[in-house]
Amino acid sequence: MVPTVPHPRRPLDRSDPVRRWYENELGWATVPGTPLQLVTGLRFDVLDVPAEAGYAALRHLGPGSPVVLHGGHGARAGRMRFLVAAGSADELPGLLDWLEWGALTLDIGAIGAGGSIEAPRPPGRAGITPPPGLGVSQGAGGGEAEFREAHGEASPQGAAVWLRPPEPGCEVESSLPSMSALPELPAVGGVGGAPDLVRLVDTMATQCHRVRLRRVSAQPLAFS
Prior knowledge:
alpha+beta, 5 helices
């Protein structure tokens, strides 16, 4: 039998403290090169929704569930990214069908195996500021107060930032929403303890649909 040995770790770049923080403190894989990217599908997957819809879903998370806020321009402007259990991206289409949202076009994206996301700067590092629009209340668990508590300082406008940062030295995976919490719940939308992917996705879908309807109703009528 040929003995198996682990692959050698890529030497750490001492000039890149942010990469070291992710790889050493959290044990998360990163993509070589710049800008720094976090590998998805290994330790976590990501659900990507409009920030306006995402704030309503924060109440369904456990205290250690990380969330990224992306205040950039273009297609990624005003997005919120929820870290969820690995494999959840593959579950999303079937879950939306089961929740009877599958027939609608919803602005919910999923990033899983083979993907990556922009790595936010670690919390508390210099150069991190709240993105525009966080000066007003964004609902339970959101807004500028929570952002400043996590960061205190600032980031270039448009950069990805931690709204709820991961905690180094703990098993982040145990706090991520997953399908495994479903049997413990009395019903979707009920009150439970463990973070549940079903409840999270149902709330995201509801809010994305409301945002879509509101935007459609705000458009001027076209007359021939």
